[in-house]
């Protein structure tokens, strides 16, 4: 278990665990009815599962994403919404030339920021990652710049349908011919699939039941 890569949706995790503890303990000591106790138990289990994903499961999940991306030594790889560097650091350790972008929202990831990313690079003996301040909807790179583009639990944070469409098409734009794009997310994936089906006939979907919430990876190769 490690807190190195932060807790996803930290305010929701804290809320669910606190509410869950209050209601379940109240149920144990007889001050609430069975329905409230059950609701509290669901909140508590959900919050703990989300915490476990953030501190343990996502370390393994990043290897699944990079495997689906077929990331290999020498690849130019872009990590969109890198956060504390979960995907970027592992890709760099595999010999990829990594560029990592983010807008560094602390609402979406606990302690998010470039300082945490750089600290994790030191902790995992990674010397070179090109860190760029950039919104996924306006990536500051030329067409076809990257062999691999990856993103994990990021695009759903963009509030508008049009914004999410722009982000996905930007990832597609900067992907080189024969490159692979992998977008892992727990929400809005039907949108991503529809958008990518409009530009490619090589869209694959992978389902994951070990993450929380359950998630999918949309995998596309650019021909």
From TrEMBL:
The keyword Metal-binding does not apply. The chain crosses the membrane at residues 12-29, 35-53. Gene3D superfamilies: Vaccinia Virus protein VP39. It comes from the Bacteria. It holds the Pfam family Methyltransf_11. InterPro entries: Methyltransf_11, SAM-dependent_MTases_sf. This is Methyltransferase type 11 domain-containing protein.
């Amino acid at each position: 278990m490690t807190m190195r890569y932060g807790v996803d949706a930290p305010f929701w995790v804290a809320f669910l665990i606190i509410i869950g503890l209050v209601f379940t303990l109240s149920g144990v000591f007889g001050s609430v009815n069975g329905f409230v106790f059950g609701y509290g138990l669901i909140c508590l289990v959900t919050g703990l599962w989300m915490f476990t994903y953030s501190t343990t499961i996502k370390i393994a999940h990043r290897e699944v994403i990079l495997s689906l991306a077929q990331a290999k030594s020498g690849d130019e790889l872009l990590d969109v919404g890198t956060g504390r560097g979960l995907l970027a650091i592992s890709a760099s350790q595999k010999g990829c030339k990594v560029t990592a972008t983010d807008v560094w929202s602390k609402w979406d990831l606990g302690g998010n920021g470039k300082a945490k990313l750089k600290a994790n690079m030191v902790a995992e003996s990674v010397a070179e990652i090109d860190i760029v301040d950039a919104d996924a909807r306006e990536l500051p790179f030329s067409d076809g710049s990257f062999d691999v583009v990856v993103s994990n639990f990021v695009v759903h944070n963009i509030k508008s349908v049009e914004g999410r469409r722009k982000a996905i098409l930007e990832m597609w734009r900067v992907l080189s011919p024969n490159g692979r794009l992998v977008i892992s997310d727990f929400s809005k994936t039907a949108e991503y699939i529809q958008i990518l089906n409009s530009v490619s006939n090589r869209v694959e979907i992978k389902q994951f039941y070990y993450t929380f919430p359950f998630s999918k990876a949309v995998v596309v190769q650019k021909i």
